[in-house]
From TrEMBL:
<feature type="transmembrane region" description="Helical">
    <location>
        <begin position="440"/>
        <end position="462"/>
    </location>
</feature>
<feature type="compositionally biased region" description="Basic and acidic residues">
    <location>
        <begin position="1"/>
        <end position="14"/>
    </location>
</feature>
<keyword id="KW-1133">Transmembrane helix</keyword>
<dbReference type="InterPro" id="IPR036259">
    <property type="entry name" value="MFS_trans_sf"/>
</dbReference>
<keyword id="KW-0812">Transmembrane</keyword>
<keyword id="KW-0472">Membrane</keyword>
<feature type="region of interest" description="Disordered">
    <location>
        <begin position="1"/>
        <end position="37"/>
    </location>
</feature>
<feature type="transmembrane region" description="Helical">
    <location>
        <begin position="174"/>
        <end position="198"/>
    </location>
</feature>
<protein>
    <recommendedName>
        <fullName>Major facilitator superfamily (MFS) profile domain-containing protein</fullName>
    </recommendedName>
</protein>
<feature type="transmembrane region" description="Helical">
    <location>
        <begin position="345"/>
        <end position="366"/>
    </location>
</feature>
<feature type="transmembrane region" description="Helical">
    <location>
        <begin position="312"/>
        <end position="333"/>
    </location>
</feature>
<feature type="transmembrane region" description="Helical">
    <location>
        <begin position="412"/>
        <end position="428"/>
    </location>
</feature>
<feature type="transmembrane region" description="Helical">
    <location>
        <begin position="144"/>
        <end position="162"/>
    </location>
</feature>
<dbReference type="InterPro" id="IPR011701">
    <property type="entry name" value="MFS"/>
</dbReference>
<dbReference type="Pfam" id="PF07690">
    <property type="entry name" value="MFS_1"/>
</dbReference>
<dbReference type="GO" id="GO:0022857">
    <property type="term" value="F:transmembrane transporter activity"/>
</dbReference>
<feature type="transmembrane region" description="Helical">
    <location>
        <begin position="48"/>
        <end position="68"/>
    </location>
</feature>
Length: 475
């Protein structure tokens, strides 16, 4: 295991250590339940805070791709091509990953609440700025900043859940919170398209601004600082807003330590290899998500905005099916090998999903190449999303179990790899399709994803298996 440090005294720990700490911190010096401990808060306070977290987490991805069903309207308004209009989201998707990385040291130094609250407020104003933009460049700047600040709930959810719930509740609450990342990227564009069909893209973004306002009010009203140490005097409500008194850790030293920790973990062999696998498996699905409207509005499909928006539910179905497969596979593999358990066995959960993704890419590409019925696009997208979500479930389960005391750090790193893949594809896929044809492009994508996953996951499995006889801990 990793060498401990003074700044890690509240990090998530594994199994028995977490349970031991949970029992110890429930009791105050006089032997009664300590009401300052978030685990001892009332059910109502916990639920309201958790629902507020869910609202901002749902908007993290859902609001970032909100405009993907409106790119045709925007292209006509700004007098640019639809392909150019669709790239307005790309920098925001990239900055989601880096925003999550930057949030980790701040969370540790200043507490959870201010790093959750203020980026939420800033993001609301960035969406408002995008709504009022009159040209592509201004709109893209606001959308990019939306991605940078709006991604924080994707990182801060884990420490809040670990602070507020006891260890045996963690898996259930993480699964509930995690559904926001499954449905958000598809539900958001669908709602945006329905609104835009009745009015225009600007009104649709106005509704998104209002939704962000409601979510921000919930964070203000129901959010609380969840960082807890038994010997720490709790911060005042006003101080908690600004990170004053939330933690007693030295700020500069804590920021420096966690910046160094992030760099170290990015280049750890298991995280580096699985990160590349995440990058590749997210690249092609995000490419579909951000570009499918330009195909659906063109011959032979000629979908209107309502029909194109409704197609997003194929993505929702695929994501939920992928999550279900990953959940049940993790349970099954653990029961099967519980007598001789090895963490890397969870990575075997990628093989079927990658096969599903490859078949989905082929189905999607060939359907469009030969102008077949749109149902082929829907089934192809479902299979692609099964592969995307089930793969990330397997990889996330592996890295969180391998590094149980660094869950926030490794989640931010995986989020960075995911968004880097999503950022890149929008710039090269449209031109690639024009140059080589859609059938060939999606066939190559299927080959690339299978080859990349085999070449990244297999070395991790081999390396971990070789280390097992020596009883090594986390690398």
């Amino acid at each position: 295991m990793e060498k401990s440090c003074p700044f890690e005294d509240t990090r998530e720990m594994d199994g028995a250590a977490s349970l031991s700490q949970s029992h110890e911190t429930h009791d105050s010096k006089d032997g009664v339940m300590d009401p300052r401990n978030p685990q001892n808060w009332s059910f109502t306070r916990k639920t309201l805070l958790f629902v507020s977290l869910m609202s901002s987490s749902l908007l993290a991805d859902g609001a970032m791709v909100w405009g993907s069903t409106l790119v045709t309207q925007q292209a006509m308004d700004w007098k640019i091509t639809v392909e150019h209009s669709a790239t307005s989201m790309n920098w925001g998707i990239l900055l989601q990953g880096f925003g999550g990385i930057l949030a980790v040291p701040l969370i540790e130094a200043y507490g959870r609440y201010p790093v959750w609250l203020w980026p939420q407020v800033i993001t609301m104003f960035m969406v408002l700025g995008a709504t009022l933009s009159n040209d592509y460049s201004t709109f893209t700047v606001f959308r990019s900043l939306q991605g940078l600040f709006g991604t924080v709930p994707q990182v801060i959810g884990l420490p809040i859940i670990h602070d507020m719930y006891s260890p045996h509740e963690w898996p259930r609450m993480i699964n509930i919170w995690g559904t926001t990342f499954l449905v958000g990227p598809f539900l958001g564009p669908a709602i945006a398209g329905y609104i835009g069909a009745g009015t225009n893209w600007r009104d649709s973004f106005g509704v998104l601004t209002a939704i962000y306002g409601v979510s921000t009010f919930m964070v203000l009203a129901f959010g609380r600082e969840t960082y807890y140490a038994p010997d720490k005097t709790p911060a005042s409500r006003l101080g908690a807003y600004f990170g004053i008194g939330n933690t007693k850790l030295p700020k500069l030293a804590t920021l420096g330590f966690w910046c160094q920790k992030l760099v170290v973990y990015v280049f750890k062999f298991p995280l580096l290899m699985t990160g590349f696998a995440v990058l590749v498996t997210f690249t092609w699905p995000i490419g579909i998500t951000t570009t499918i409207d330009s195909f659906l509005h063109s011959p032979p499909y000629l979908f209107d905005t309502i029909e194109a928006s409704s197609m997003r539910f194929a993505g929702v179905i695929g994501a939920l099916c992928g999550w279900a497969f990953g959940h049940f596979f993790n349970e099954w593999i653990y029961r099967r090998h519980s007598a001789n358990w090895r963490t890397e066995l969870r990575l075997h959960g990628v093989w079927f999903p990658i096969g599903s993704m490859a078949c989905g890419l082929l189905t999607y590409g060939l359907t469009m190449n030969f102008d077949k019925h749109w149902i082929g696009l829907a089934f192809g997208w479902i299979m692609v999303n099964i592969g995307m979500v089930a793969t990330i479930v397997a990889i996330t389960a592996y890295v969180l179990e391998k590094y149980p005391d660094q869950s926030t750090c490794v989640s931010a790193i995986l989020n960075m790899w995911r968004t880097c893949g999503g950022f890149a594809v929008g710039y090269f896929q449209p031109e690639w399709i024009v140059r080589n044809g859609i059938g060939l492009v999606f066939g190559i994508q299927a080959i690339v994803v299978c080859t990349a996953v085999v070449l990244t996951i297999t070395p991790v499995l081999v390396r971990e298996r070789r280390k097992q006889p020596q009883g090594s801990g986390a690398a």
